Amino acid sequence: MSSQDNNRQIALAAVATTLEDRRPDAPDWSPRNSNVIIAEQRSLMVYVNPWGQAVIRQEASWDQQEDDVVVVDHAHLPGLIKSLREIADQPLDREPGEDG
């Protein structure tokens, strides 16, 4: 880790600590809290572009200039749908992984 990355991590930790200190009663919005029944979800739209590809577009969040866009060619839709169906058919696992 570079010294710049290390300094950034220290600064982020300080900000997080300061925010926690300001609101000691702040709720835990993490996946670990079983009381969170609806997590934040930005709006999604799905449509077909002029090339016949499926477009999945997610509304930009407050800190983004543009929407997130995923384009899937028609030939790959069955594999994508199969993978999504497998995920949808599994019980919800709200435990955070190694990435958070």
Topology, number of strands: 3
Structural class per helix/strand content?
A: alpha+beta
Q: Give the overall shape, derived from the CA principal axes.
A: extended
Put simply, the count of helices is 2
For the largest beta-sheet, the strand count, sense and barrel status come to: 3 strands, antiparallel
Instruction: Give the domain tally.
Output: 1
Identify the strand order in the major beta sheet: 1-2-3
Averaging pLDDT over every residue, what do you get?
A: 81
Low-confidence stretches: none
Strand and helix map with partners:
Elements: H1 3-22, E1 44-48, E2 54-58, E3 68-72, H2 77-89
Antiparallel strand pairs: 1-2, 2-3
Question: What features would you describe in this structure?
Answer:
Helix content is 33%, strand content 15%. A three-stranded antiparallel beta sheet has the order 1-2-3, with no helix packed on it. The model has no long low-confidence stretch (mean pLDDT 81). The two termini are 19 Å apart. With 100 residues, the protein is of the alpha+beta class. It has one domain.
List keywords for this structure.
single chain, 100 residues, alpha+beta, three-stranded antiparallel beta sheet, 2 helices
Summarize the structure.
This protein has helices spanning 3-22, 77-89, and strands spanning 44-48, 54-58, 68-72. By secondary structure, the protein is an alpha+beta fold.
